[in-house]
Q: What sequence folds into this?
């Protein structure tokens, strides 16, 4: 028995605190507006069993017809808000960007060497520093300075496709590496075994695997999976984390040391790292580290390779679109040269093809989640502080069809829908969107000027059907599919392409990307 002493007093005090806490929680839950509607969660699991594990964005989009444009769901212990409307996304992420520009944090970021990626950083001073480094190199007015290297990289891609068309995924990847290495590190990617290129591609591949939605949910719900010894049976996530941390070190250090050595002998040309270091004091360790980190993850935000694969699939499945785009190129540019950036204003159908490629199969369909820095009320719904968000805006009729015509007014002029929603919203909009847009435009325009792509043929000369299959994960792209990439005109050779591009040195060295 406790008697009448201090023990009884402590018990009564504890009960009083517990009752008051329950009353406060009840009052808060009933005095504030409700969360947005959503599917009823199960105990512990939440709505996880309702999701398409490989492509959760498809489930989110299917919920729209039942619950509306803004939906709340619970994935294990994490409450999330799903935004399925472009208008709602603009309202929250742009018009209220001061409180909707944070990122939900995850133990997975550090475990998979992504805590230094600006895209995942919390909204704050470190993010602003990284953003400023990128903005100085990638703001819209700076992009014309990169046109020459982007055009040269597109021409190199044509040579590679002419010599080895079946290896198109590699050639698209090396197109991206070629212009990005030049812009970031003043480095020329000359071969597949290039040390700098290898560090970047290895890190990117590991990040894509590690950030699969289902894997992330498991690691966040059961964090002990990342604490297991790597030798422990079933410690798959821990072993993957170890590889990614090593790759993260290499992707920061190998390219950075390359440009630092070049700078030490005055052999470095203008590029993001050299220009940023020249603006930074040698004693500014924080600034130098930020430059190294920002440069190393610039490639992970460039969705150029995956989008080119989507474009190629679209052309194989829609030969009438390919023919119409080529007719426009022939009419405006002619057949005696290849397109350049000066031709862009006169090629509106090519512009629409690029926009439709972005829309048809976004390569980051899940988006990068936002988080709130304070609670908010929107359309009568309560948005708690720290709530994670994503969006999947599909406002186009017949969304599965590839129709560039949807971007034209009735009078034949392009409309104002530039598909910027692919690059995010508000203060977290992709800072590299202008360089991505220019790179993709020059690549697909030159491809269509020189090549046509068709379905592959079987042994009887019949078309082999193409059934699109997409990878899963944070970034998605079409799996490799059989196709024929052929020069548009008879008698075309490396010599012909050399004349059209002026890349005589490239041709003589037989560099295959």
A:
């Amino acid at each position: 028995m406790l008697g009448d002493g201090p023990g009884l007093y402590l018990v009564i005090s504890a009960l009083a605190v517990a009752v008051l806490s329950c009353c406060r929680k009840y009052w808060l839950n009933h005095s504030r507006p409700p969360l947005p509607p959503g599917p009823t969660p199960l105990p512990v699991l939440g709505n996880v069993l309702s999701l398409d594990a490989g492509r959760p964005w498809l489930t989110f989009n299917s919920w729209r017809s039942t619950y509306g444009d803004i939906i709340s769901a619970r994935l294990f212990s994490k409450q999330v808000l799903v935004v399925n409307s472009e208008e709602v996304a603009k309202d929250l992420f742009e018009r209220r960007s001061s409180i909707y520009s944070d990122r939900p944090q995850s133990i997975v970021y550090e475990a998979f060497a992504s805590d230094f990626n600006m895209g995942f950083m919390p909204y704050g001073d470190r993010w602003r520093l990284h953003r400023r480094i990128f903005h100085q190199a990638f703001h819209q007015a700076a992009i014309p300075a990169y046109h020459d290297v982007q055009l040269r990289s597109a021409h190199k891609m044509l040579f590679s496709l002419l010599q080895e068309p079946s290896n198109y995924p590699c050639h698209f990847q090396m197109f991206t590496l070629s212009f990005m290495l030049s812009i970031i590190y003043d480095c020329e990617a000359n071969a597949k075994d290039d040390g700098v290129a290898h560090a970047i591609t290895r890190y990117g591949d590991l990040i894509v695997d590690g950030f699969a939605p289902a894997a992330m949910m498991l690691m966040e719900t059961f964090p002990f999976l990342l604490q297991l010894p790597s030798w422990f049976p079933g410690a798959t996530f821990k072993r993957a984390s170890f590889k990614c941390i090593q790759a993260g070190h290499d992707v920061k250090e190998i390219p950075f040391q390359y440009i630092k050595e070049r700078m030490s002998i005055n052999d470095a040309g203008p590029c993001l790292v050299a220009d940023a270091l020249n603006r930074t004091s040698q004693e500014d360790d924080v600034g130098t580290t930020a430059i190294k980190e920002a440069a190393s993850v610039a490639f992970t935000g460039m969705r150029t390779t995956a989008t080119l694969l989507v474009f190629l699939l679209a052309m194989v499945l829609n030969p009438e679109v390919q023919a119409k785009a080529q007719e426009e190129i022939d009419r405006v540019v002619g057949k005696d040269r290849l397109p350049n950036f000066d031709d862009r204003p006169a090629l509106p159908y090519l512009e629409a093809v690029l926009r439709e490629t972005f829309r048809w199969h976004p390569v980051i369909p899940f988006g990068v989640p936002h988080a709130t820095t304070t609670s908010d009320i929107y359309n009568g719904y309560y948005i708690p502080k720290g709530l994670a968000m994503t969006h999947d805006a599909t406002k186009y009729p017949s969304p599965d069809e590839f129709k560039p015509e949807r971007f034209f007014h009735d009078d034949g002029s392009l409309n104002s829908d530039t598909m910027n929603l692919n690059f995010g919203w508000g203060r977290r909009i992709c800072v590299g969107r202008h360089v991505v847009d220019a790179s993709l435009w020059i690549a697909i325009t030159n491809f269509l000027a020189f090549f046509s792509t068709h379905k592959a043929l079987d042994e009887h000369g019949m078309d082999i059907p193409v059934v699109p299959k997409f990878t899963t994960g944070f970034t998605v792209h079409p799996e490799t599919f059989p196709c024929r990439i052929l020069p548009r005109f008879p008698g075309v050779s490396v010599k012909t392409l050399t004349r059209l591009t002026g890349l005589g040195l490239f041709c003589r060295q037989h560099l295959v990307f």
Observations:
- Residues 9-14, 23-28, 505-513 have pLDDT under 50 and may be disordered.
